[in-house]
Amino acid sequence: MDVEEFRIRGKEMVDYICTYMNTLKTRRVTPSVEPGYLRTTLPAEAPIHPEPWDDVMSDVETKIMPGVTHWQHPRFHAYFPAGNGYPSILGDMLSAGIGCIGFSWAASPACTELEIIMLDWMGKAIGLPPAFLALEEGSKGGGVIQGSASECVLVCMLAARAVGIKRLKHQFPTVDEGLLLSKLIAYCSKEAHSGVEKAAMISFVKLRILQTDENGCLRGQTLKEAMEEDEEAGLVPFFVSTTLGTTSCCSFDNLPEIGPIVRKFSRVWLHVDAAYAGNAFLCPEHKCHLAGIEYADSFNTNPNKLMLTAFDCSLLWVTNRYLLTSALVVDPLYLQHCYDHTAIDYRHWGIPLSRRFRSLKLWFMLRSYGISGLQKYIRRHCELAKYFEKLVKKDERFEVCNQVKLGLVCFRLVGGPEETPQQVDDLNKKLLTNVNASGKLHMVPASVRDQFVIRFCVVSQHASREDIEVAWDIITDFATELIEGPDKERDLNEERARKHRAALAHKRSFFVRMVSDPKIYNPAINKTPPPQPTSPGTPPQPAPATPDTPSDADSIRLVPSTPKQSSWISWPLAFFFQSVDNDANDLPLRFRHLDTMVRLKSPHPGRRGSTPGASPERRAPSPAPH
Ligand code: PLP
């Protein structure tokens, strides 16, 4: 494609996108395809010879679109919103067109400088303290755009880990870093996003997952008890990840309580994940949720969730950028430049070296909408959720299961007085499955207070009251059908169609689960008891002290005791050791965080860390397939 053809095709593409957006309503919100559908329609090999662009675009419509879940569809109410504001699409287009890679200031000065300024603009607009802003006099802080909230949490955990290891190394200079690492423990609540657990896995550290109060909020006292208990047991708390606006029910951890507790422990890093809710702090009426932010070391939010900005755009701020960069810096000669002591080089702020010009889309959004335009959108989003909540509350067959503070409503059928909790869960699973299978509306489940609930999120940018009413009509129609049974007069054809829907629903529910955050729907994660000290879930014991490390190694406690609190300690590496150690007798086992059956190998008798059936994961009750 040469520049003249690009000029034409580019305009056609914009037309295609506009038509797509204007006609979205006419499409099914979710595709009715099965895994592998595309393989049957595309060739097995890449074409040797160039193909006409018209053929490519025709395949987009006939082959790709049938397999697309339409996140911008007015009947899409799953997950959280995925922004696609037009100015941000144009920003991404320009970024791809310029095609620069801004890993250092010198690699493309405007790319770095616009990012610094945008992060300061946004930080001020949502109400972060000046310590988070790069251009504030005397500040050591600053912000950066990462690819995802998960990356934000990971890089902060890596920075905190470096701080923790350095501190321990100072105390115990002759102890091996590996042993020091085995002492570090991080904290989050059971409502935290599973990205925190993944970060702990990658960082090779323990993570203690704490109970919340009845509103899904992590309280200071719970954290305090856990941290004290762990210190007592010889562990070293180093990182606390809190959430403002949790994925399952949009609950808010109690930062004003947690902050002072964290401060009492030396050099524990406090992170605040506000991936979705953070954008709402643009509105003065939601800034109250930021109370306690002055205690935090880092904060992240995703404008690609509630600020209409196209993915990817995750903003991370830290109060001490040197702690972040010193954990991530590697500096080969070919990347150095003469301004690297005075300019920010974002390659030291994250995992990838190469980075796109993502700040362009943020700049375009902020200028095109203005803060007032974004506030208007956020307010309508929250108001529509309140409207949906009202509709649910008016129907006595249903109940609302969360505190509706932003755009997410968790609700469920109450069930009959004679029904057991399991039966009510099953009823709600069936309702959700039937609704999703119809392709008329799309929602995902969550576990709230150990109950299966349905999440209804306001997603579409232009959602109206009418859209909410249509959604509620669809939900209540399916509920009526479920509760009252099939209409006696329905003809055979309809009955057959219903069965076909149910079969599809069953298959589709698997697909839905796969694309969901596993923590949203897997109650086993929340119910699993704490691990026992001798289980294979216990991290491998440190090697015996080598001749040059006797005194220090002896002076720190090697074996953590069992936590008394009912909370979960994640020792992800146990899985790896288990599967490496053992190679006979496959045992079916439910992997805690994937809602699929995986097979881990059964133990060789007598091998380390491989007692059959003793791991916390094996003791976890497997939720019934749904
Ligand atoms: N944190 C919270 C509170 C979330 O709701 C989500 C996703 O919805 C994430 C983190 C993960 O976001 P990402 O996909 O950007 O990693």
Give the distance, in angstroms, between the N- and C-terminal Cα atoms.
48 Å
Low-confidence stretches: 508-565, 572-626
Query: Which sequence of strands runs across the widest sheet?
Result: 1-7-6-5-4-2-3-12
Strand segment count: 14
**Average pLDDT, to the nearest integer?**
82
Largest sheet: 8 strands, mixed
The molecules bound to the chains, other than polymers, are: pyridoxal-5'-phosphate
Q: Which secondary-structure class do the elements indicate? A: alpha/beta
> In percent terms, what proportion of residues is strand?
5-15%
Q: How many separate helices?
A: 20
Instruction: Give the overall shape.
Output: globular
Helix fraction, binned, reads 40-55%
CA radius of gyration is: 26 Å
Structural write-up:
With 626 residues, this protein is α/β, with parallel strands linked by helices. The protein is built from 20 helices and 14 strands. The strands form 3 sheets. The chain has an 8-stranded mixed β-sheet with strand order 1-7-6-5-4-2-3-12, with helices on both faces. A 4-stranded antiparallel β-sheet has the order 8-9-11-10. The protein has a two-stranded antiparallel ribbon with strand order 13-14. Strand 4, helix 9 and strand 5 form a beta-alpha-beta unit. The C terminus is likely disordered. The site of pyridoxal-5'-phosphate (PLP) has 15 residues, from helix 5.
